[in-house]
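Annex B. Sample input.
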Amino acid sequence: SGGIGGSGPEVKLIIMASEGNQLYPGFEIRDWNGKTISIRNKGDLGTYDFVTLNNSLAEIRKSFSSDQISVVVYPDVMYGTLIQTIDLCKQNGFPNVIYKPASVSYGTGG
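Annex B, continued. Sample output.
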């Protein structure tokens, strides 16, 4: 299952693909206590580190009572990366994945 929205204590998983403005290619997990786990892409090809993500989700799940996780996705993240991430969430005991598009603002420049 899944959906849009959600409330209460949450684990937020952010997927990024670009550098700049406090972004980096990789994942960032923010838990309900404000703890942040940064998982940067690895290697020259910049591949997503799904092994570290899997281990981090398993560890978080041990101490989080809800089965819900919010996945925030930036527009330049490939669809396959999103699907792999959702699959890992579900495999680690988070069957209720809430999709949240990233807030992106476009300046007019100058």
